[in-house]
Amino acid sequence: MTQFIANATFKRWFVRFSTEAEFNHKADNLYKGGNIVVSRLFNGKNPSQKYGVGAIVSYINSKGMAAGLNVVSVNPFGDWKFISLTTYQLGDDISMLEFQPGLYLTLKKGWYIRNHPRMIFDFASDYYEVPVGAGFGNIIDVSGTKVNLLVEPQYDFSNNRMMLYAGVKALF
Questions:
Q1: Counting beta carbons within 10 angstroms of the beta carbon of residue 149, is it exposed (0 to 12), middle (13 to 18) or buried (19 or more)?
Q2: pLDDT over 70 at 26, yes or no
Q3: CA–CA distance from 110 to each of 3, 82, 142, 150, 166 (Å)?
Q4: Confidence (pTM)
């Protein structure tokens, strides 16, 4: 699964657009869907800590449209950062919770180590993904836009399989 993500923060608003596809060797490639997340941000006691709550609207290829709530947080601690995104969505034949807890260690020259699994609990179809992994990424500057390239091998305990989470994020 490959996910393409664009994140933007406008004063007290966080906006995230993502789309994902499954690229298969010697088989059909699949467009899996996309979503937009909008959250109103609030500061914690430490101004670098942010928390937010808002809405998510998604198109899930095999099921259609869904909408719901999201909660986001960013909590830096020295060279470490904890980031989380939790969403719950409802639609026709859709009842899905996603939990994405992320732990990052900042290194030199834009590099970082990451553990940011995307856990999926699809209650309508009784499908679950519970991955754990570790990976790395690098944030580079491309003509004034920050681009985050990342890869994280993961093991999905619910489905007993290896997965590779790879991404390209444009940061505005």
A1: middle
A2: no
A3: 21, 17, 13, 11, 17
A4: 0.85
